[in-house]
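Researcher: Good morning. I'm working through a list of sequences from a screen, and I'd like to move beyond sequence-only analysis. For each chain I'm collecting a predicted structure so we can compare shapes side by side. This is the next one on the list. No need for commentary yet; just the structure.
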Amino acid sequence: SDTKVMTCAAVWRMPKELESGSHESPDDSSSNTQTLELLCHLDNTAHGNMACVMWEPMGDGKKIISLADNNILLWDLQESSDKAVLSSSAALEGKGQLKFTSGRWSPHHNCTQIATANDTTVRGWDTRSMRQIYCIENAHGQLVRDLDFNPNKQYYLASCGDDCKVKFWDTRNVTEPVKTLEEHSHWVWNVRYNHSHDQLILTGSSDSRVILSNMVSISSEPFGHMVDDDELSDQEDQHQEEK
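Model: Good morning. Structure tokens for this chain:
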């Protein structure tokens, strides 16, 4: 608007044909272009610019958390999803202009915890009380860009940042990272766990590289156990174990 750049958030409905379970190829030339239906905007006029929006990982898809400047906002989508009601919020307090850069909703602990990044700090929050439950000050030497929770180990969190590092934390003891990766030569923008096999970590950086790392030492699975059990016959299973 005018000379100001505003970042906002909205909820859209995808066409039924594109919902999960549909096996149509999205680039099929015979299919018509589908339009998204705008359901509602997450009103952020009172809270500032949106940095990040997160769906509740489990549940009925009615809860959303957004990070706007220094505010954590928990939204409740109404039955028709055409209205989002602000159900609770918390503000980051301290010196200077504090702003969130990213966040992640934990799939563990009945989805009652989120992790946020601001400047060089990573914080954990309880969504029921909106209170801080842990704080990792100077988690990175420079700005923290992204976070991700291990899908299979409930206290493990990965972070990455402008110090070119990817760090892995046990949120029960945040004095030291469990492990640090230094494969990138520039800012690390993203870190993501494989949804099934948590030894596989994908990172993207402005050194123009995407790196897939095999973090066996901090994964929930033994080394080499990369094939889903139900895909193997007994004979193959035995052979796999011998290997």
